[in-house]
Amino acid sequence: MHQLLTLGSQLPTAAGPCTIERFLGGGGQGEVYQVSVASQPPSALKWYFPQQATADQRQALQTLIRKGPPGPGFLWPLELIEAPQTPGFGYLMPLREPRFHGIVDLMKRRIEPDFRALTLAGLHLSQAFLALHAKGLCYRDISFGNVFLDPDSGAIAICDNDNVTIDGSDPGGILGTPRFIAPEVVRGEARPGTQTDLFSLAVLLFYLFHIHHPLEGRQEAEIKCFDLPAMTRLYGTDPCFIFDPADDRNRPVPGLHDNAIAHWGIYPEFLREHFTRGFTSGLRDPQARIRESEWRLALARLLDGIHYCGQCGAENFHDPAAGSAGTCWSCGQPLRLPWRLRLADALGGAPSRYPVLLNHDTRLYAHHLDPDRRYDFVTPLAEVNRHPSDPNRWGLKNLGPDKWVITGADGQLRDVEPGRSAGLVSGLRIDFGPLRGVLEG
Amino acid sequence: MPKRPGSELASRPLHFIWIADCSGSMSVDGKIQSLNTAIREALPHMRAVADENPNAEVLVRAVAFASSAHWHVSQPLRVADFQWTDLQTEGLTAMGEALNLVAQQLRMPPMTDRALPPVLVLISDGQPTDDFAAGLDALMREPWGKKAVRVAIAIGEDADHEPLQRFIGHPELQPLQANNPEALVRHIKWVSTAVLKSASSPASQAAGLPAGLNVPIPTPTAGPSSAADVW
Ligand SMILES: Nc1ncnc2c1ncn2[C@@H]1O[C@H](COP(=O)(O)OP(=O)(O)O)[C@@H](O)[C@H]1O
User: How far apart are CA A4 and CA A325, in angstroms?
Assistant: First the structure.
């Protein structure tokens, strides 16, 4: 099926000749092959079709290669490849590992990540696009086809980075993917850029958390033939959020939009507020869109609020704005909250309104305990455990290098050395070093 | 126990209908064999496109026409379940009757009132021997017929472009000419992938469409089509 490169042939790279090992897939712009240099782990090589191998594309690639990947999660162009005997050019990028699945698999329920992995994926996506935009770049085609996730860990891989450009440089290229394109672009009033990326990101996050599009409600149900004029109206000239509190003409229709109905209510108010703002004022005013840093913060809080139903084990989300623990979305039984740790928002700050729920398997990371390492979910510094001889006694184990100091109800101070655990009792204060927390139960 | 509520993404049906000429002339120079092969070749690619599209449920059927028209595959089948049975040739070219058959199935009911634009692919190597205009009228009287993406493939030099052009109903889109088996394979693959894709998820929403088109049709890749091509 491939036509541009011959399997088994070699091309020169900075690290030595690379062998074309396998054809991975073809797209609109070129073909992607698995290649490797000597005994090193394989990478991916994209080679452009002759009509796509333009001087502009080459120039754009060189800029991207010079700037380097904005962060982890990008399958970023690493090296431009040319060969005297082969027409055109291509570029090397990291190979996407098999653990990553496309969002289409998530939409078709061919993969079933738990809420923790899904939330982490959303957080990583927000972080990745924050980093990209911070470099002055924009993506312009955030959609199902370009984002991949590992359903077990929530890790992400962002592909197709060769269309990334400097924001505002507007070479007149792609407009994006239908259903993800911002309304002002659908209407032809604007070109894709950072502000329209923010819209596409919000759509992608809504899809991730609802398996449904935020603008497909009664208006969509009333469309018979879903063709381009219909889509232009729905996503461009007359868009309306399905849960717009001030406008109920586009509510999801039972039987047609059940996913939206089934998911919306299980998330805490602060997350729903983000979606609401993003798809009401953010629909009309690009400046009012939710920034990636806002998504990142909200999703980190969402992660901290996950707890398990004592009856059926389903993950539920704690809503700090709700008066009670509520009932389980899965089995309908009343929920009982586990221990909650309220950490100070910053050094010397007041305890947060958004507690970390301490489940049997909860770990606290540098993100939680060190204000200088926010969003580091790699380094665990504490974990919930049980007393070795009494499984009814719960504790928090110090996994970090520094001791903690706890203050019990009696006012007594005790040290918790690395490797030791503090027994959980209501009102316990823990000084983690940089931050303090207080335990509720 | 389910980890998360709900089910898969809501989708709409996308009806894809082959309308294939099986008249006697199709038996000359192995044209019918080429058509059977081309459709078989295209199926895995069609499946891949359908598989990657969460918004559409692609359902495939086929009409064959010769001295009369009949449903070669009458039940709308999901591409994953669709198998191609070889077409056989005989007799005349009842193209009008074929369009009539399609029109009856695009009526509501049996059509649902919510769907993606259907894709109709008319393939012929000759000219209609029945009342083509009546068949086309019947088709265009149905709202789903009018909204359908209509593509035509002309096989060989003798194919009459005029009825095919009227079927397409748009001056800017012409029948695809296939003068050799390779071109036929390419065109069949193109309609079952690129056209299928754009019917369910038009790729250039703001780019502006030629007047009268409700689905943007990607331009087929040009291929060799020289006078030396023979059937
Ligand atoms: N880094 C990669 N590792 C593995 N597969 C890849 C990689 N990049 C692209 N592919 C695969 O190659 C094919 C074409 O890539 P794509 O980026 O979609 O091309 P285009 O931008 O030309 O449409 C797709 O099937 C894609 O999954």
Answer: 59
Please state the domain extents for chain B. 9-201
Amino acid symbol at A86: T
Q: What is the arrangement of strands in the sheet containing A79-83, beginning at the earlier edge strand?
A: A10-13, A16-26, A30-37, A43-48, A86-93, A79-83
Identify which of A114, A178, A221 has the shortest CB distance to residue B3.
A114
Q: How many CB atoms lie within 10 A of CB B53?
A: 21
Predicted pLDDT of residue A397: 97
Residue A158 φ then ψ, to 5°? -105, 120
Tokens of B218: 């990607």
Q: Atom 15, ligand 1: which residue's CA is nearest?
A: A27
Q: State the DSSP H helix or E strand holding residue A317, giving kind and residue range, or none if neither.
A: strand A315-317
CA distance A137 to A129: 9
Multiple choice CATH, B9-201, 3.20.20.10, 3.50.50.60, 3.40.50.410, 3.40.50.1370: 3.40.50.410
For strands A315-317 and A306-308, give the pairing.
antiparallel
Taking only the tens place, the pLDDT of each residue in B50-93 is 999 999 999 999 999 999 999 999 999 999 999 999 999 999 99
With helix as H, strand as E and coil as C, how does A50-106 read?
Answer: HHHCCHHHHHHHHHHHHHCCCCCCECCCCEEEEECCEEEEEEEECCCCCCCEEHHHH
Ligand 1 centre from A30 Cα, in Å?
9
Model pLDDT for residues A66-76, shown as the tens digit of each residue: 999 999 999 99
Contact at CB, A224 and B209, closer than 8 angstroms: no
Distance, CA of A361 to CA of A376 (rounded, Å) = 18
pTM as predicted:
0.94
- Residue A43 Cα to ligand 1 middle (Å): 12
* pLDDT tops 60 at residue B223: no
Residues 6+ apart with CB under 8 A from A377: A120, A123, A365, A367
